From TrEMBL, chain A:
<dbReference type="GO" id="GO:0005737">
    <property type="term" value="C:cytoplasm"/>
</dbReference>
<dbReference type="GO" id="GO:0005634">
    <property type="term" value="C:nucleus"/>
</dbReference>
<protein>
    <submittedName>
        <fullName>RNA recognition motif-containing protein RRM</fullName>
    </submittedName>
</protein>
<dbReference type="GO" id="GO:0003723">
    <property type="term" value="F:RNA binding"/>
</dbReference>
<feature type="region of interest" description="Disordered">
    <location>
        <begin position="174"/>
        <end position="211"/>
    </location>
</feature>
<dbReference type="InterPro" id="IPR012677">
    <property type="entry name" value="Nucleotide-bd_a/b_plait_sf"/>
</dbReference>
<dbReference type="InterPro" id="IPR000504">
    <property type="entry name" value="RRM_dom"/>
</dbReference>
<keyword id="KW-0694">RNA-binding</keyword>
<dbReference type="Pfam" id="PF00076">
    <property type="entry name" value="RRM_1"/>
</dbReference>
TrEMBL record, chain B:
<dbReference type="GO" id="GO:0035145">
    <property type="term" value="C:exon-exon junction complex"/>
</dbReference>
<dbReference type="InterPro" id="IPR004023">
    <property type="entry name" value="Mago_nashi"/>
</dbReference>
<dbReference type="GO" id="GO:0008380">
    <property type="term" value="P:RNA splicing"/>
</dbReference>
<dbReference type="Pfam" id="PF02792">
    <property type="entry name" value="Mago_nashi"/>
</dbReference>
<protein>
    <submittedName>
        <fullName>Mago nashi protein</fullName>
    </submittedName>
</protein>
<keyword id="KW-0539">Nucleus</keyword>
<comment type="similarity">
    <text>Belongs to the mago nashi family.</text>
</comment>
<dbReference type="InterPro" id="IPR036605">
    <property type="entry name" value="Mago_nashi_sf"/>
</dbReference>
Length: 211, 176
């Protein structure tokens, strides 16, 4: 019986049904977060994550199928233009302040300066849409060089090429966690074991986070 | 494998005792092992209606909306966001203080509905559940108004970010 329990987590890194079972690189390697909190971890509670994404409900639409051919981390085009994200915005900044600064690189097609729902002040980030790649790129090049109310604004691409995935549905973590628990908190044993035996599967899912 | 990790273990000076203590918290990029999922839904006469937002490893953002009542269609969208977007989100989560909260005293999911918030960040994993919260009044009346308020506002800020992202990328108007 003991052997069964130990072997299961490895099988479930990528389940027999092809679904991802774990998230984050560390967890795939078998390194579990040391602290956990919340009722959602409780196995007695019925969850229906599988039913949420059964059949065609599990098919997520990407904007452009070619997207997957783009090198991970390279910027991708949105449906009508190129979106940049600006961060480190002063909380009292107004949309018009950003328009003044960023219209210099091209006509602004869209701007979202979102507010903190609690304070009503700017949340500190904004999304700006340019029509042309070149315009957005010019803005990105100015990252750290533009100031607003004494703060240096960072400008980055918002959407990038990602790794293709065939997995559907949300990723289950709890199954693995509960097994780990059953083993009576054998954290270290579990870690090293899963690391070595999970190696083959990990390579399939390794993704590059640079971007 | 284990020997590699030794590099990551940092030794810090304890401020209170002055003794050197070993802290097993490698200083690494929080965007690298980040995960977030938020679900809100209920089962009623229009079936299982829900909204789910998920940020997976590598910045993969997934947006699912089963709102048959308003749109009569199921929406499933997926796009990868840059590290800069994850940094905005992680800062939002960090500043909210939600990682320090606990759902022990929050109203449990019921027939009205259910909310789930799951976050893996900096070696901490929270998985909170509660019922649907319609207003701040309900928050104030709960057994943990401060904690629930943190959750209540964070969810709005996260939804606001994700709706902007999805809205701009796909040109759809997400339904709240």
């Amino acid at each position: 019986m003991e052997v069964d329990k130990e072997d299961k987590p490895v099988d479930r890194v990528i389940g027999e049904d092809g679904k991802e079972r774990l998230y984050t690189e560390d967890i795939r390697k078998g390194v579990l977060p040391s602290r956990q909190k919340g009722r959602g971890h409780d196995d007695s509670e019925e969850r229906d994550t599988d039913s949420r994404y059964a059949g065609s409900d599990g098919v997520f639409q990407v904007l452009d199928k070619q997207e997957v051919d783009i090198t991970p981390g390279e910027p991708i085009k949105s449906i009508e233009g190129w979106i940049v994200i600006i961060d480190n915005i002063h909380e009292e900044a107004q949309e018009s302040d950003l328009r003044d600064l960023f219209a210099e690189y091209g006509p602004i097609r869209n701007i979202h300066l979102n507010y903190d729902r609690r304070t009503g002040f700017s949340k500190g980030y904004a999304l700006i849409e340019y029509e042309k790649h070149q315009e957005a790129e010019e803005a990105v090049k100015q990252s750290g060089k533009i100031q607003l109310a004494g703060k240096d604004l960072t400008v980055n691409w918002t959407f990038v090429g990602g790794k293709p995935t065939s997995a559907t549905g949300v990723i289950h973590f709890r199954t693995n966690r509960s097994i780990n628990r059953e083993r009576g908190g054998d954290q270290n044993g579990g870690r090293s074991r899963r690391r070595e035996s999970g190696g083959g599967n990990n390579n399939r899912r390794r993704s590059d986070n640079r971007g | 494998m284990e020997t590699e990790n030794k590099d990551e273990i940092t030794v810090e000076q304890s401020t209170t005792t002055g003794d050197a203590i070993v802290v097993d918290t490698p200083k690494k990029d929080p965007t690298e092992d980040f995960y977030m999922r938020y679900y809100i839904g209920h089962k009623g006469k229009f079936g299982h209606e829900f909204l789910e937002l998920e940020f997976r490893n590598g910045g993969k953002l997934r947006y699912a909306n089963n709102s048959r009542y308003k749109s009569e269609q199921i929406i499933r969208k997926e796009v990868t966001v840059s590290k800069a977007v994850l940094e905005v989100l992680i800062k939002m989560i960090g500043e909210s203080g939600v990682m320090q909260e606990d759902d022990k005293l929050w109203p449990e999911p019921d027939v009205v509905g259910k909310q789930e918030l799951e976050i893996v960040l900096n070696n901490e994993h929270i998985s909170f559940t509660t019922t649907k919260i319609g207003s701040l009044m309900e928050v104030e009346k709960s057994k943990d108004p401060e904690g629930l308020k943190v959750f209540f506002y964070l969810i709005q800020d996260i939804k606001c970010l994700v709706f902007s992202l999805i809205g701009l990328h796909f040109k759809i108007k997400p339904i709240q």
